[in-house]
Design brief:
Length: about 70
């Protein structure tokens, strides 16, 4: 549960503001440094979301096992 909270906080206060800052700099031209940076942040965000989802699924599965 703590890991999920840490991921949510890092996405909300670190990754998303960085992505918003890149978006505010104007349209990203494919192949530019801006596009590459946004792509990296998008990949990090997607990876964190995947880990958070898997941790949530594990939390639900463990809760169901304890009930039965």
């Amino acid at each position: 549960m703590v890991a999920i909270l840490a991921i949510v906080v890092s996405m909300l206060f670190v990754v998303q503001p960085m992505m918003a800052d890149l978006k505010s700099q104007g349209p990203a031209i494919p192949g530019s440094d801006l596009a590459a940076a946004f792509g990296r942040l998008h990949g990090i965000s997607s990876g964190l979301y995947l880990v958070m989802s898997l941790l949530g699924l594990a939390l639900v599965a463990l809760g169901l096992r304890r009930r039965s």
